[in-house]
Design goal:
Layout (H helix, E strand, L loop, with lengths): L1 E6 L7 H16 L3 E7 L15 E5 L5 H19 L3 E5 L8 H5 L5 E4 L14 H18 L4 E4 L14 E3 L18 E5 L8 H14 L4 E5 L8 H8 L5 E4 L5 H6 L3 E4 L8 H8 L4 E4 L5 H4 L6 E4 L4 H12 L2 H14 L5 H15 L2
């Protein structure tokens, strides 16, 4: 089967790029798919994650003013589709432009959309009424256009609530990127969090929680891995809170599994998620997790009080309380870590990619 993925690029260190590297490579190596990945403006060069050498990488140039950009996007993709004649097309682009692809292409070939984020990624409580209204109108347009896809794939059952009018919805979770035989010893006095610096990831909330943690556990440290955004002022916030000596901000780490294995606890402070890839990665390394019960993902992954803790969204005191509780209980960390490692086997690459294979074959008849 000839499969074409359409995405903005694969050289960033985000969850979408990681997931695409896993499933596209698995389909090419183990299922015999002829996989082509279409990127924009050569953003396939120097990919952050490893892709199978069997995958063909192509790119189109887009740019100019909005009209020029859209026309170059439209013409470029149409030319690639005509050239490679795929049996199925899967769109991995969370931007508005991707929602127009069924109308742009006007072909009988099945076109699938993969949604990797929550709608909330575009909303901020600090927006003006006018800006919030604009975002909500954009959501309505996206939902209207989404009906044209052969299938609209979301990551969790919770995500379905954001697209309640769609009849073409299906759920396929993200696959694990690794599942090491060993687990963390859980004895290092290190708490880890992974993700780019952004409003979404809620690191401002985490730093406030960490200040409370240090009052009871002053010899522990917090390590945060992800693309740094100085405009968020997280370093300044840490200094203001007087906790800068216990926190280290690191750039994205390719071998992040090793960092999980060197830690004893994972914490997620996100205001919203599309899934929570980092949770299943941490659990695969035997780490118990503490997470805000945000929309969407954590409650689908963590079994509360069994392999981790879910706390009220944005409740900084509750987050700190559960972190301290696990720091003080090594045996509980071990029990939760062991159960979590077992529970996330459902996210291993084979069963997840099997779901994709069945979906593609059901649409290509």
């Amino acid at each position: 089967m000839k499969l074409l993925y359409i995405t903005n690029g694969i050289n960033a260190s985000g969850g979408l790029e990681r997931v695409l590297s896993i499933k596209a490579s698995y389909l090419a190596e183990n299922y015999g798919y002829e996989v082509t990945i279409l990127s924009l403006n050569n953003n396939h060069l120097n990919p952050f994650y490893e892709f199978s050498k069997k995958i063909k990488m192509v790119s189109i140039d887009v740019g100019g003013n909005p009209i020029q950009y859209f026309l170059s996007y439209k013409n470029g993709i149409c030319n690639i589709v005509k050239k490679y004649n795929p049996d199925v097309i899967s769109v991995c682009d969370d931007g508005l432009k991707a929602f127009f692809l069924p109308k742009i292409l006007r072909i009988k070939t099945p076109v699938i959309y993969e949604r990797h984020v929550s709608k909330e990624v575009e909303m901020n409580n600090e927006f003006s009424f006018r800006k919030k209204l604009g975002v909500k109108l954009k959501w309505q347009l996206m939902e209207f256009l989404a009906k044209d896809f052969s299938k609209f794939v979301v990551l969790t059952n919770g995500n379905k609530k954001e697209w309640s009018s769609l009849q073409n919805l299906t759920v396929i979770a993200n696959p694990l990127s690794f599942y090491p035989e060993q687990s963390s010893s859980l004895q290092n006095k290190t708490v880890i969090s992974v993700g780019r610096h952004s409003y979404q990831k809620g690191y401002d909330l985490l730093l406030s929680s960490w200040q409370k943690v240090l009052m009871k556990c002053p010899d522990w440290k917090l390590e945060i891995y992800g693309k740094v955004d100085d405009s968020l002022g997280l370093v300044r916030l840490a200094e203001k809170l007087g906790i800068e000596k216990s926190i280290t901000f690191y750039k994205p780490e390719r071998d992040i599994s090793q960092k999980y294995l060197e830690s004893s606890l994972y914490v997620m402070s996100s205001r919203y998620e599309g899934f929570g890839m980092v949770l299943i990665e941490a659990m695969a390394c035997g780490l118990p997790c503490v997470s805000f019960d945000c929309n969407y993902g954590p409650s689908d992954i963590i079994i509360d009080s069994i392999d981790g803790f879910l706390v009220e969204k944005e409740n900084k005191s509750a987050l700190a309380e559960k972190i301290v509780f696990l720091i003080d209980n090594l045996e509980l960390r071990r029990t939760m870590g062991s159960k979590g490692k077992e529970n996330v086997k459902r996210y291993l690459a084979k069963p997840i990619v099997d779901n994709w294979d069945r979906l593609f074959k059901s649409l290509f008849k």
